[in-house]
Specification:
alpha/beta; Rossmann fold; 5-stranded parallel β-sheet; 4-stranded mixed β-sheet; 22% strand
C-alpha cells in the first residue's frame, strides 16, 4: 500500500450459538492474522478453568458492571444465560483510528448494538453448527459446563440462530479448517474495501495528474 494511503481498522464480530465453534475459530484467527487483536470483554460470570482475568475477560461483580453501563463506558453490552457481558468503548475507538483490526467473540444482542453505533466499522459473521445433534455433542465434549447448563444452552440455541440473517456473512462450521479459511478470506476482502482506505482519493487524483513523457 502506498505511504499516502492509510487504513482504518474494522471490528470483526463472530457470533454463534454456544458450542458452534466461534471461540475456537477466533483463537486460530488471532494466531494467524497480523494486525488483529481480541476485544477483551467485561463479564459478571465466573471464570472457567484456565481463563485469566484481563486476558480472556475482565471478571467483575454486578454492581461494578452496572456502574460502567450508567457511565456509558460500553460500546455494547448484553445479558446472556444470567450473566452480563460488555465491550469497553475507548480501547476499540483508539485501535480503529490506528488502523488495527479488533475481533469480537460476542452474541447477537451485542452485535446489534455495535451495528447501531458504528455500522461502517463492523464486519459480522455468524457461525452455524452442522446440526443440533452435533451442537449438543460439542457442548458435552468440551466438559466445561454442567448438564443443566448444556440443556439451557441448547434450549436457547434455536432462538439465537434465528438472527443469522442480520449478519454480513454466514458460515456453516462443518470442517474447522475450512471455516477458518473462509473467515480469513473475509478479512482480506474487508481490508481492501474502498471505504477503509484513507487518502485513496488523493492518491488516485495525484497519479492522474502526473505527466507521462513520450
Amino acid at each position: 500500500m502506498s505511504e499516502s494511503i492509510t487504513r482504518r481498522g474494522f471490528m470483526l464480530v463472530l457470533s454463534s450459538p454456544s458450542g458452534a465453534g466461534k471461540t475456537a475459530i477466533a483463537h486460530r484467527i488471532l494466531e494467524t492474522e497480523d494486525n488483529m487483536s481480541l476485544s477483551v470483554s467485561v463479564t459478571t460470570r465466573s471464570p472457567r478453568p484456565g481463563e485469566i482475568n484481563g486476558k480472556d475477560y475482565f471478571f467483575v461483580d454486578r454492581p461494578t458492571f452496572d456502574g460502567m453501563v450508567q457511565r456509558d463506558e460500553f460500546l455494547e453490552h448484553a445479558e446472556f444465560c444470567g450473566n452480563c457481558y460488555g465491550t469497553p468503548r475507548e480501547p476499540v475507538r483508539k485501535a480503529l483510528e490506528e488502523g488495527k483490526d479488533i475481533l469480537f467473540d460476542i452474541e447477537w444482542q451485542g452485535t446489534q448494538q455495535i451495528a447501531e453505533n458504528a455500522r461502517e466499522d463492523l464486519v459480522s459473521v455468524f457461525i452455524l453448527p452442522p446440526s443440533m445433534a452435533e451442537l449438543e455433542r460439542r457442548l458435552f465434549s468440551r466438559a466445561q459446563d454442567s448438564e443443566e447448563v448444556v440443556r439451557q444452552r441448547m434450549a436457547t440455541a434455536a432462538a439465537e440462530m434465528s438472527h443469522w440473517n442480520e449478519y454480513d456473512y454466514v458460515i456453516v462450521n462443518i470442517n474447522f479448517e475450512e471455516s477458518v479459511k473462509n473467515v480469513r478470506s473475509i478479512i482480506q476482502a474487508e481490508r481492501l474495501k474502498r471505504l477503509r482506505q484513507n487518502g485513496l482519493a488523493g492518491f488516485v487524483n495525484a497519479m492522474r495528474s502526473q505527466t507521462i513523457l513520450p
